[in-house]
Design goal:
Layout (H helix, E strand, L loop, with lengths): L1 H10 L27 H7 L2 H5 L2 H8 L5 E3 L3 E3 L5 H36 L4 H21 L2
Antiparallel strand pairs: 1-2
Length: 144
């Protein structure tokens, strides 16, 4: 629930990273493993039925309390907060895959549109891309 997640966020202990100061590099470092989304934002966005329908989550639910489960990291069934952490981790991976799938589809449609704009058929565009790649590879091979 949202209340439980907010309570967990309040109990979190912030980590302090020791970062060497380099005046040439003004970038601030973030702790590893953090994302740009708060737990409240993840709750609003998460497709909970999809997460709970995954094989990983079903395996987790079937475990006995105290048993260990590994999904990028170790979770212990019955330990406070581990169910939420696992669901959040599964959702992040699902969201990443969904976003990548959309990006690939967009790139494919952009390639087709460029081919149409150039007056080429999709097959001619693919043949052209293959020939260009082969020529580039051959040019690279002769320079080695």
């Amino acid at each position: 629930t949202l209340e439980a997640i907010e309570a967990m966020e309040k109990r979190k202990v912030s980590t302090v990273l020791k970062v060497e100061t380099n005046p040439a590099s003004p970038k601030k470092r973030r702790p590893t493993g953090t994302s740009g989304m708060s737990d409240a934002e993840v709750i609003k966005e998460m497709d909970t039925p999809a997460v709970e329908a995954t094989r990983s989550y079903k395996s987790w639910v079937a475990l006995e309390d105290g048993k260990e489960f590994t999904y990028n990291q170790k979770y212990i069934k019955g330990k406070e907060g581990h169910d939420w952490l696992l669901r959040k981790n599964i959702w992040r991976r699902m969201r990443y895959r969904r976003e990548n799938k959309k990006m690939v589809e967009k790139m494919k449609s952009d390639t087709v549109q460029v081919a149409v704009d150039a007056g080429l058929t999709v097959h001619a565009a693919a043949d052209h891309a293959i020939a260009s790649a082969a020529a580039a590879a051959a040019a690279t091979a002769t320079h080695i």
